[in-house]
Write a structure and sequence with these properties.
Largest sheet of chain B: none
Largest interface: A-B, 51 and 36 residues
Largest sheet of chain A: none
Oligomer: heterodimer
Protein name (chain A): Phosphate transporter
Helix content of chain A: over 70%
Number of strands of chain A: 0
Shape of chain A: elongated
GO molecular function, one term (chain A): phosphate transmembrane transporter activity
Main location (chain A): membrane
Structural class of chain A: mainly alpha
Membrane topology (chain A): Multi-pass membrane protein
Distance between the termini of chain B: 28 Å
Structural class of chain B: mainly alpha
Subcellular location (chain A): Membrane
Number of strands of chain B: 0
Number of domains of chain A: 1
Radius of gyration of chain B: 18 Å
Chain lengths: ~375, ~70
């Protein structure tokens, strides 16, 4: 069996993306529990990592398409997938550096759109589908989660306003841990299978697997481990923004935010909407800030976050286009892109060390 | 372009019912726990408070169990 260089590179890059996906999204499940002290930071990311791994093995339905139909799948080759993944990784790391939660799936979609566009022209991109499947849910889901969290927070305080402070704090903290775990599990079943889908489809196009094969066991193990490892590493910069930056979260709010997010994520995946966990949880946290009397929502932070959401698709598309174009020129191009991507990632990591954020100081300030 | 308004409405309705429902049940249960502690301190009957908190807890567990079922049966 002759496995070409590009296939090996794509598999490694897909796992790298999965890893960034993990640490970018730890905040979704655990930021509120860390902020309220319901869980110690290291324990929180540990639970999230285990549940992501479990989720990866539980998901029966592995993604059958790489792009969910937003680009013409017949025009996707390994170079396009590679370009798309590089675009997604670079954008994920940049948003992590500035501590902004943004959608990893949008980054992947953006990277693929850019890479397909330069490889096959704009008619390979289905703009209507992009609007229907990406833009509309991205606008609607944080609004829905925000509304649910706002009402839930209001009721939580209203019902317990005469309850002893100690009982209230303890009770809602337990609720927080349970709902946060549910979000982590749902994340594992959704996001790990995306990477499995990408790797499996790449192996199929390369002829290493028969056309209708499911993911081999090593792919499941590798993808599950990559996302769990990333989750355990903890995207502390994003956790700080999500837990402390948007609003000062108390246990009833944290519970309301995660419960609403879990409800929206589970309902919509049942109805068949692909939506971003990041958008839903951010909406939930903002809603929980609006729903508590006298709570201050830092709208400037929320605004920066929304700008990052809007930029995710086009920015990842630009990087994906450049990477896909160079990688498409042959083996030398592929190696060039891989080295350039590694250099950019190294530079971003080096920049992050000037202002390191870890489990020890994640709750110290509101922003990165 | 086709926007699936029915689906969006469905998500809104179910998420509203489940999310707000879960938080309300938990809050009522926490309330009952608090009443139980106070009744215990006063030496009055704790039966109703205990039953209410247990009922709320059971309802929360059922809702979350259904959530887990939805996650893994997909």
């Amino acid at each position: 069996m002759d496995v070409s260089l590009i296939v090996v590179v794509v598999v490694i890059t897909a796992l790298a993306f999965d890893f960034t996906n993990g640490f970018h999204d730890t905040a979704n499940a655990m930021a509120t529990s860390i902020a309220t002290g319901a869980l110690r930071p290291r324990v929180a990311v540990g639970i999230a990592a285990v549940l992501n791994l479990v989720g990866a093995f539980l998901s029966i339905e592995v993604a059958k398409t790489i792009s969910s139909g937003i680009v013409d799948e017949t025009r996707i080759g390994p170079a396009v997938i590679f370009g798309g993944l590089v675009g997604a990784i670079v954008w994920n790391l940049l948003t992590w550096l500035v501590g902004l939660p943004s959608s990893s799936s949008h980054a992947l979609f953006g990277g693929l759109i850019g890479a397909v566009w330069v490889a096959s022209g704009s008619d390979a991109v289905r703009f209507t589908t992009v609007l229907e499947k990406v833009v509309v849910p991205a606008v609607a889901s944080p609004l829905i989660a925000g509304l649910v969290a706002m009402i839930a927070t209001f009721l939580a305080y209203r019902i317990t306003h005469r309850t002893g402070e100690d009982t209230r704090r303890r009770g809602f903290r337990v609720g927080q841990v349970v709902t946060a775990s549910l979000v982590a599990l749902a994340h594992g079943t959704n996001d790990a299978q995306k990477t499995m889908g990408v790797i499996t489809l790449t192996l199929i196009t390369a002829g290493s697997l028969p056309a209708d094969a499911g993911p081999p066991l090593w792919v499941i193990i590798a993808a599950g481990s990559a996302i769990a490892l990333g989750t355990y590493l903890g995207g502390w910069r994003i956790i700080r923004t999500m837990g402390r930056g948007i609003t000062d979260i108390q246990p009833p709010q944290g519970f309301a935010a995660e419960a609403s997010a879990a409800a929206v994520i589970l309902t919509s995946s049942h109805v068949g909407f692909a939506l971003s966990t990041t958008h839903v949880v951010s909406g939930g946290v903002i809603g929980s800030g609006v729903g508590r009397r006298l709570a201050e929502v830092r709208w400037s932070t929320a605004g920066r976050m929304v700008v990052a959401w809007a930029l995710t698709l086009p920015a990842a598309a630009l990087v994906g286009a450049a990477a896909g174009w160079v990688a498409g020129t042959g083996a030398a191009g592929t190696v060039t892109v891989a080295l350039a991507a590694a250099a950019i990632c190294g530079a971003i990591y080096w920049l992050s060390r000037r202002n390191p954020i870890s489990a020890h100081n994640v709750n110290d300030a509101a922003t990165v | 372009m086709h926007i699936n308004w029915t689906g969006l409405g469905e998500v809104l309705a179910v998420a509203l019912a489940a999310g707000v429902g879960l938080v309300t049940l938990a809050a009522l249960g926490i309330n009952a726990l608090d009443r139980r502690t106070r009744a215990h301190e006063r030496g009055t009957s704790t039966v109703i408070a205990t039953a209410t908190s247990a009922l709320c807890a059971a309802a929360c567990v059922a809702l979350i169990g259904y959530g887990i079922y939805l996650t893994i049966s997909k």
